[in-house]
Specification:
Elements lengths: L4 E7 L4 H10 L3 E6 L4 H5 L4 E8 L4 E2 L2 E2 L4 H4 L5 E4 L11 H15 L8 H16 L3 E5 L4 H14 L3 E7 L7 H12 L3 E6 L1 H8 L5 H22 L3 E5 L4 H4 L5 H8 L13 E3 L7 H10 L4 H4 L19 H20 L8 E5 L5 E5 L2 E14 L7 E2 L4 H14 L3 E6 L13
Parallel strand pairs: 1-2, 1-3, 3-6, 7-8, 7-10, 8-9, 10-11, 14-16
Antiparallel strand pairs: 4-5, 12-14, 13-14, 14-15
Bound molecules: xanthosine-5'-monophosphate.
The site of xanthosine-5'-monophosphate has 11 residues, from loops.
Pfam families: GATase, GMP_synt_C, NAD_synthase
Function: Catalyzes the synthesis of GMP from XMP.
GO molecular function: ATP binding; GMP synthase activity
Amino acid sequence: MEQDKILIIDMGSTRNTYIAREIRELGVFTEIHAHDMTREELSKITNIKGIILNGGENRVVDGVQIRASEALLNAGVPVLSVDHEGSAPWPQEEEARIDKLQSFVFNTCKAEANWNMDNFIAEQVAQLRAQVGDGKVLLALSGGVDSSVVAALLIKAIGPQLTCVHVNHGLLRKGEPEEVVHVFREEMGANLIYVDAVDRFLDKLAGVADPEKKRMIIGAEFIRVFEDEARSLKDVKFLAQGTIYPDIIESGTKTVKAVKSHHNVGGLPEDLDFELVEPLKMLFKDEVRECGLALGLPRSMVFRQPFPGPGLGVRCIGAITRDRLEAVRESDAILREEFAKAGLEGKVWQYFTVVPDVKSVGVRDHKRSFEWPVVLRAVNTVDAMTATVERVPYEVLEIITHRITHEVAGVNRVLYDLTPKPAGTIEWE
Ligand code: XMP
């Protein structure tokens, strides 16, 4: 069944996402679009029931007032103008605003509350088939929530035409590459190319201590490895990406620019000229998770905690060495295991270990040892801009300390990082 849609037109408001979200919570699908939509762009969107011209503080760009295109004004559906052309702003009080939205969406537009995940998936599957035809699609599958859900959706829509590439850069958590290969190749029957690029990355990173240089090397090398794979596959026309709504929506009129500039795939050379496939670009993070569950992905994958692109590379402080990297990986696995046992897994936003490049004296087997410390970090946050430290029960910290000092080679000390953000950041680099 096709979902009814309300279009939110960015007329310079910083609250487009907010309004989009509130209408979705009423059960009606929303999309945010630019003020200059053409007739052709509009015609590609089915079941538009109404349009909200959402004006706001950024209505004037480079001295020119933003105006809605003729196509939008003559779309033949009800138009609600807010804070625009003399119209009133949204009511400040939440209740009054929702009343206004509800009345427009259901009474004026006669939209039905038929936005749900099954309808969304059915519609995306149809759209993907229409976009891709019998073409081949390539996807870099990191195993993160977004790329995993894109993979699952594409497998459902165009199965054998999809090739997933999973690059193991050596900086993933323990068991992660194996889980990606198992879930997608064995359980979901995907074409999956597993690239063992561990040596390639670690060689490039050898001796590099500066965090930003490390990030740059990891990012650039990733593109190179992916590019090599893309070239070896023939006739691939499409590149799928796990772009989600918050990635493309900044705020206000930036939306317009952000949506457009997003169509240049960062870093890939021009001769690899793919058309983008971004089926999640209209979903918020929690909706992406819901979509993943509906498509049968394991909960461990769908509710995975955030993990930085450069992975354990920024948790092995300074120049990365293989032995210290293993200490990060093994201690992280122990931390995750013990947090799961203690029921902290779904409760704490992000938790991990860090191994700084210092050594301290300890005692092992009645002899003096000179080994690394492991730092435990467990934080809660809403938007990652600020964070508080989780009050992990002391007994859990003791168990983790015992296990890490006994099971992880080269580690004789465990510390708990008590620093909120600010003063510290969440990561150590
Ligand atoms: P900070 O350390 O800035 O981290 O407080 C905030 C959030 O961002 C994640 N993070 C990254 N994610 N690439 C990423 O994809 C990166 O280079 C990166 N650095 C930090 C971090 O894990 C936390 O969730």
